[in-house]
Amino acid sequence: MATGTCGDDCACRRAVLTAYRELTARYCSDRRALACCAMIYRCHHAAEDGQAAASKVRQWVDATTGRRLPARRRGAAGRAPVPQAAIGR
């Protein structure tokens, strides 16, 4: 298993970008493809936390595609938003 930072010629970078292209071309939205690609990145770099992996993948995709992908939405104080169905229980 690879450790450390990933350079421009890293095998995991190529795997992540190929997976992103395949997923968005055929199967799913940008947001879901980014989540899947972050999981692929974490398989190569198990020491990375989820947010760092997602950020790295988003940077790679932005640089490769030339467009800015949506950032993950966060609620108050950095927590994930609470689904409306859960309010009032």
Would you summarize the structure shown here?
With 89 residues, the chain is an all-alpha fold. The chain has a domain at 11-67.
Kindly describe this structure:
With 89 residues, the chain is mostly helical. It has a domain at 11-67. The chain is 53% helix and 0% strand. The chain is built from three helices and no strands. Helix 1 runs antiparallel to helix 2 (30-44), helix 1 crosses helix 3 (50-65) and helix 2 crosses helix 3. The protein is globular and about 30 Å long. The relative contact order is 0.13. Residues 68-89 are annotated as: Disordered. Residues 77-89 have a biased composition (Low complexity).
Keywords:
89 residues; mainly alpha; 3 helices; globular
